């Protein structure tokens, strides 16, 4: 086994990890203000294997400048034709598997801010610039609202926005998607982001 940080391939439907997935770092002593030894820190570093399952096309699409949603195409379902973004694998009304639909153009032409929240307090490993401008984005013909991050400007109720994508060096996470006000210049976008 090498010292390389772990990577995974899937061959014949089986996960094949290679490299190291657990790293131990040196402990440091914990002492009180008088110098009395009380314990140690135990630094540990692990690599999680996170399968996206049927949501994988959504995350791959972001790096390709595409926003994918899903639609119920079951003619026996009272909610047939409902489009879901965020990506729902199964229809919540009939529980049948949805069809993947590309809503990039709908997003570019109809997305607007339903409501928003600005926060200075973040969770662990936050990588977004503070204050974070969370926007709840609404689309025409879509029955759900998508939480996102406004990368440029200040949010307003009803503000028209367009998606931007981290196409240069995708992370394959939701961080590859952000929003900017309609009319934003490409030069203002965060590094690595394009209009797709
Ligand atoms: Zn349905």
How would you describe this protein?
The chain has one domain (53-194): Nucleic acid-binding proteins (OB fold (Dihydrolipoamide Acetyltransferase, E2P)), CATH 2.40.50.140. It is 8% helix and 34% strand. The chain contains two helices and 15 strands. The chain has helices at residues 56-63, 104-110, and strands spanning 7-11, 14-18, 22-24, 28-31, 37-41, 44-46, 68-71, 83-84, 99-102, 112-119, 132-138, 146-149, 161-166, 177-181, 193-194. The strands form six sheets. The chain has a three-stranded antiparallel sheet with strand order 8-7-9. The chain has a three-stranded antiparallel sheet with strand order 10-11-12, with no helix packed on it. It has a three-stranded antiparallel sheet with strand order 14-13-15, covered by helices on one side. Bound molecules: zinc ion. The site of zinc ion has 9 residues, from loops.
